[in-house]
Please model this.
Amino acid sequence: MNIILLGPPGAGKGTQAQILVEARGMTQLSTGDMLREAKDSGTEMGQIVADVMARGDLVTDDIVIGLIREKLASDSGAGFIFDGFPRTLAQADALADLLSDVGQTLDAVIEMRVDDEALVKRITARSTCGGCGAVYNDITKPWPEDGKCANCGSTEVKRRSDDNEDSLKQRLMEYYKKTSPLIGYYHAKGTLKSIDGLGEIDEVKARITGALDG
Ligand code: AMP
Model:
């Protein structure tokens, strides 16, 4: 089963993707994580995208489509979860072609709906583990009191440099201008399932399970 998690920054795509990886053995493909990796390791592409990401703008379609193309050649386990991709109509068309090239289809697009006020609160509270990438939130899922990641034991707390108010405003603007048209696109294709992304992590997980298996 190949699925897309679609939603604005802070909707909980990464958190729910990690849950699906653990529960179903699926493979998470996050273009944001891939781009951050390229940036941190100082590759030529990483240097090109660093400023774009810091501003909260979208990286060019060619770059992210290239990243996904490379990954689709690898084993998908129980299927791919596309997290943060596609973000434009051109990327959505490219994904359909890439999947068909490897004899696969897109089974579902889960739209995670969260209002803007909640997004800002979530994003300014979020952190990830430097060791394993597990997602934490100062309010809903704080770091364990012993200071060690519950998943891998690392003590490195990371906060994203683009999780600040200016960049977030721009990321939201990009979402509404360029990514939200994908909701209509996938609705027309008959693959869209919309769920309420507000609430406890387990509640949202149950809604996604219902949308996928129901
Ligand atoms: P994310 O971790 O998904 O919030 O992505 C962080 C940043 O990476 C975004 O604000 C964009 O600058 C860039 N990015 C990630 N995925 C894409 C994509 N599919 N298309 C264009 N830019 C992307």
The longest helix spans residues 165-179. The chain has a mean pLDDT of 94. Residues 117 and 123 are 10 Å apart (CA to CA). The two ends are 14 Å apart (CA to CA).
